[in-house]
Amino acid sequence: MNTDNMSLLGLTLDYGPFGFLDDYEPGFICNHSDHQGRYSFDNQPAVALWNLQRLAQTLSPFVAVDALNEALDSYQQVLLTHYGQRMRQKLGFMTEQKEDNALLNELFSLMARERSDYTRTFRMLSLTEQHSAASPLRDEFIDRAAFDDWFGPLSGTFATRRGYR
Question: Where are the transmembrane segments (predicted)?
Fold first, then answer.
């Protein structure tokens, strides 16, 4: 997403240049003219906020500025809430726990080091059997010890977090 293709409905409206995030690279830039990385994958939340600020600016003659500022101020918390929910869904977790962010950050760091396929990583993790101490995802990593360090403590609670009894 960049500044000319954001939809309030959450649709992607672009004819290019665009790309797909295969190997997980937080700074991935698909636009060949974006030399500074303004629209990189990891900058997408900030770009969305900037776009919403421009929309608020446009609406300011018609909507009270306080109401617009209140809506903009809620953006980050709403984003973090929904992003957290989506990431827990990707892990198959039914509930939120305080260690979720650290767990995801560790996984993303591992994925970035390994240049793991973003979609495949979560798909392979979903194939982990409910009471298994191992995951088919392990074989996708070169540094299996690092994967074990991440997955090992999680494997005992994996079934519970996924709602299995």
Answer: none
